[in-house]
Amino acid sequence: MRYDTEIACASYLTLHEQKLRIKSFLIEYFGTADFFLAETGFSITAVQEETAFFEWINVGRPDRATKDLFHFKWTERERRSGHFLLKCSFLNRLEDNSRQKQFEKIVLQMKEHIQHPTSTLYITQKEKLIEVRQFHHRANGKIGYGLYPYDEDENGHWSENSGVGLWIYRKDFHLLYEGIKEVYPRKVKGFENFDDTGMNFISKSEWKVILDRWSKLVITNPSSAEFIDYVSRWVIATLEQVDEIAIEGNL
Questions:
Q1: Which residues make beta-bridge pairs with 220?
Q2: Are 245 and 238 in contact (CB under 8 A)?
């Protein structure tokens, strides 16, 4: 069985933002359990069982023993207009149309996420580190970045009382990096480029540049407004106590 429908996306939402909202819907639909997702520049395919994806690729329908499969494809209504039409396809193992009403309900849920995405901000504090998650879920792994207040003690060592740090997983960090990369490449020898595996010390003046860029990202990424705002407020409050914030990745 296969159902298809088309949704006209709001012109003020970028393609990246629309895809984030669809992913938010998928996480809510499948729950916190892992699910398989394949993404290209203009499409997303998601299913709870990876074998169903390859069955769909090979014969055009999920195997009869598999779960539901979603396929989303974006097309521009006019070339380079930035206005997108989203085609949504829903497939499952059934032969008849007994789930038509369920599909119609799913479409309403998708439209709701595109128009008014649910908040996906999760905050957990562990000792001196606050973990902030938005779109990350456990299937994305444990790779991420720590933001740490940096201050020196009387011996010139990193002070243990510098303050509480933030932990951001890679899935969410990529949006923050859009602002961080504004201060790179740097002129300091040996620290010209951002190091995903090492320590990156960023000064108060550089953070002002990053914060300015983040404030603009909120406009084009409204689903992440709460996330960006939380991290920005943490940076501003932290810079009242220290002059540098370091970023360290565990890649």
A1: none
A2: yes
Average pLDDT in the 145-169 region? 88
Q: What angle do CA 36, 32, 23 make, to 5 degrees?
A: 55
| Side-chain half-sphere CA neighbours of 170 within 13 A | 12
Mean pLDDT, the chain, whole residue set: 84
- The amino acid at 43: S
Tokens (6 digits) for 98: 């007994």
The 8-class DSSP code of residue 1 comes to: -
Cα torsion through 19, 182, 244, 230, rounded to 10: -30
Question: Closest Cα partner for 56 from 16, 104, 105, 1?
Answer: 1
Please, what sign has the CA dihedral across residues 38, 40, 44, 45? negative
Cis omega (within 30 of 0) for bond into 62? no
Whole-prediction pTM value? 0.68
Q: Which residue has the tokens 């895809």?
A: 19
Two tokens, residue 178: 């859009």
**Alpha-carbon gap, residue 184 to 191, rounded angstroms:** 9
Q: Which residues, in sequence order, are bridge partners of residue 37?
A: 46
Nearest Cα residue to 246 out of 190, 182, 198? 198
pLDDT at 28 over 70: yes
Contact assessment for residue 63 and residue 55, using Cβ atoms and an 8 Å cutoff: yes
- CB-count exposure of residue 146 (10 Å: 0-12, 13-18, 19+): middle
Judge contact between 149 and 162, C-beta under 8 A.
Answer: yes
CA distance 212 to 248: 22
Q: What 3-state class would DSSP assign to 33?
A: coil
Sign of torsion, CA 51 57 62 63?
A: negative
